[in-house]
Write a structure and sequence with these properties.
There is one protein chain. It is built from nine helices and no strands. With about 260 residues, the protein is mainly alpha-helical. The protein is globular. The N and C termini lie far apart (about 45 Å).
């Protein structure tokens, strides 16, 4: 039953992400204005907004002008799968601190999906998403340190993580005048560092993100579909690294310690 509820919530919030990203890019009022077709501006009815189902019924086209709908169910399905996967692979007990972390993690996933979608489309990590999530990450650190007795170790670990990830990108940003890495990645690094909560997890995150980015770019380079100086949004790979560290970081570090360092 919990999986069903999480799956439904994932689809709903994935639909929310689609709307949020489009309205941010168009500088539309998210609270007051209703969703509409980006071509003919026909206001969408409730039956047109059912996650995945409406897109399938309309065959990916507007009901009125029959032009292709810009949004696809990919974000909705990905959000639902992340909700479900996070529950199945959650490394903490589902009570007390573990439950608190899980609930906030779902909120972070919504923002992460919005940042991934926006960065892939327009090579930008908008401050209107990044700044509130920096605040939320800060609030999580404070609550973990006080309410759940993480103390100064929680604060120091998160601060080190933020300084490490954001600091690396700040140096790259300054050295390249913004050509190698964007300013949004520097700010995103603060969120990810707070969530990683320590130097080892932060380094693992950077390694996974760099590996994922390389694996994504290499086939394009080998097939001649991309140039060596192609622009590749790095935000999505950082978030992939964060998800991997959050769900599997402890297991990866334990495996590495037991199997490789002991050799």
């Amino acid at each position: 039953m919990i999986l069903v509820v999480l799956g439904v919530f994932g689809l709903v919030f994935g639909s929310f992400v689609n709307a949020l990203v489009w309205r941010l890019h168009q500088k539309r009022d998210f609270l007051r204005e209703r969703s509409e077709c980006t071509h003919c501006h026909h206001v969408l009815a409730a039956k047109d907004l059912i996650p995945v189902v409406s897109w399938l019924m309309l065959r990916g086209r507007c009901r009125c002008c029959h032009k292709k709908i810009d949004d696809t169910p990919v974000v909705e399905l990905a959000t639902a799968l992340l909700f479900l996967g996070s529950y199945v692979a959650w490394p903490y007990a589902m009570h007390g601190e573990g439950l608190f972390r899980f609930i906030l993690w779902l909120v972070f996933l919504i923002g992460f999906m919005a940042l991934i979608d926006y960065d892939i489309r327009w090579y930008l990590l908008p401050n209107k998403i990044v700044y509130p999530y920096i605040g939320l990450a800060t609030l999580q650190v404070i609550i973990l340190a006080t309410v759940f007795h993480g103390g100064i170790h929680q604060v120091l670990g998160s601060a080190i993580g933020a300084l490490l990830i954001s600091g690396v990108f700040w140096v790259l940003f300054q050295m390249s005048s913004g050509k190698w890495i964007g300013g949004g990645d520097v700010k995103l690094g603060v969120i990810l560092g707070f969530l990683a909560g320590g130097a080892i997890d932060s380094l693992l995150l950077l390694f996974i993100a760099s590996l994922a980015g390389t694996l994504a770019a290499l086939p394009l380079l080998l097939m001649g579909k991309a140039k060596r100086r192609m622009q590749l949004p790095f935000g999505p790979f950082l978030i992939i690294g964060m998800i991997a560290v959050q769900l599997f970081g402890a297991a990866i570090i334990t495996w590495y310690t037991n199997h490789l360092l002991s050799v």
